[in-house]
Amino acid sequence: MGKADRIRFRRGGRAVAVCLVLLLFAGAADAARIKELTELKGVRANQLVGYGLVVGLNGTGDGKDSQFTFQSLASLLERMGVTVDPKNVEKIQNVAAVMVSADLPAFAKAGSRIDVTVSSIGDAESLTGGTLLVTPLKGADGKVYAVAQGPVSTGGFSVSGKSAKITKNFPTVGRIVAGGIIENEIPYGFAGKDSLVFSLENPDFTNAARIAERINQAMDGRVAKALDAGTVEVEIPQAYEGNTVELVAMIEQLNIDPDRSCKVVINERTGTVVIGEDVRISTVAIAHGNLSIEIRESQDVSQPMPFAPGQGGAEGPATSEDGRTIIAPGGNTVVTSQTAASVTEGKSRLFLMNRSVTIGDVVRGLNALGVSPRDLMTIFQALRAAGALEAELEVM
């Protein structure tokens, strides 16, 4: 073999290797990690909430109607050794009562910091520039798990005058990044468990069976089984006893080819239509006509010429029996209401939509009808009633 032949062989081998890599990536393009499809049962965040005060506002705090704000301020000052009457602080406009909320992550340790959200509960106009005072955050059991404090960032503003007001975003809700410090931990016996339970975010029998099968292949044994459509139980092998973290990390990185449900989601409030990838439509004939009804009302006013006879008489205005014409006997001004109604019906022909094979076929067939998203909602509901829609229809 000559030098040129060896060069051609190497180039050909590299091309084959690149093709193989591309095929592998193409085959795994639809794959998803078990980590994205499931959650480990018992490993979750816990909600915390507390009541506090934001001070330092530039006249945008709570007004006189929020009496609880001034009572809280008076109580706070009293704990600091200053005795005041709540009525004497009602004119203060740089204080706002807020609710503080946060999520306590699983396995969070004392001293770690978390983000907190601050929301006004009074009539404050804006929390921009304010500072949250020390606020204990409690869990559902009433125990304090974190303490929050710090400057509030709203990401918006509110400017008002006597007759105009400009507001961007929601200045009455803010966030304090790393503003909460964890004081108490939530105990969780993770290392001493005999089995792990993975909960599917979207319960599905096919996906549960595939996850269990994939785990058994990786572990080379029957350690996983699907209990139902949303639960997969994994027995901890002897080789991973005392090392559960490594087992969970290995399982989360396993890939499966998830089965996607055929679904069309419709949101009538916003006019949004979302069509899933595997949605199919059987051969059907569709005719969709638009019906438009327009009603226009106007008033015709006829006024007398200057110095016309009868103008300025003593008699007041009178209304005719039909309720539409107003005649002033002392003058000759006449107001008549005119109503014009018209009905327009679209002339749509019958359109034959062949059985679709891909989502592209569905989109092209529906676009051929030239309908709006609002009309698509009615068409999909009619297709479902006719049995031509091979998907689940969900109306939000």
Q: Strand arrangement, largest sheet?
A: 3-4-5-10-7-6
What coarse outline follows from CA principal-axis ratios? flat
Question: How many separate domains make up the residues?
Answer: 3
Number of contiguous helices: 7
Show unreliable segments: 6-29, 311-316
In terms of quaternary structure, the protein is single chain
Assign the structural class, choosing from mainly alpha, mainly beta, alpha/beta, alpha+beta, or little secondary structure. Answer: alpha+beta
| Largest sheet descriptor | 6 strands, antiparallel, barrel
Question: What amount of the residues lies in strands?
Answer: 25-35%
CA distance, first residue to last residue: 70 Å
Number of DSSP strand runs: 25
Report mean pLDDT, rounded to a whole number.
80
Return Rg in Å: 35 Å
Tell me roughly what share of residues is in helical segments.
10-25%
Detail the topology: elements first, then pairings.
Blueprint: H1 3-27, E1 32-33, H2 34-37, E2 38-40, E3 46-55, H3 67-79, E4 95-104, E5 113-120, E6 131-138, E7 144-151, E8 157-160, E9 165-168, E10 173-182, E11 195-200, H4 205-219, E12 224-228, E13 231-235, H5 244-252, E14 255-256, E15 263-267, E16 272-275, E17 280-281, E18 284-286, E19 291-302, E20 318-319, E21 326-327, E22 334-345, E23 351-353, H6 359-369, H7 373-386, E24 389-390, E25 392-395
Parallel strand pairs: 15-25
Antiparallel strand pairs: 1-14, 2-11, 3-4, 3-6, 4-5, 5-10, 6-7, 7-10, 8-9, 11-13, 12-13, 15-16, 17-24, 18-23, 19-22, 20-21, 21-22
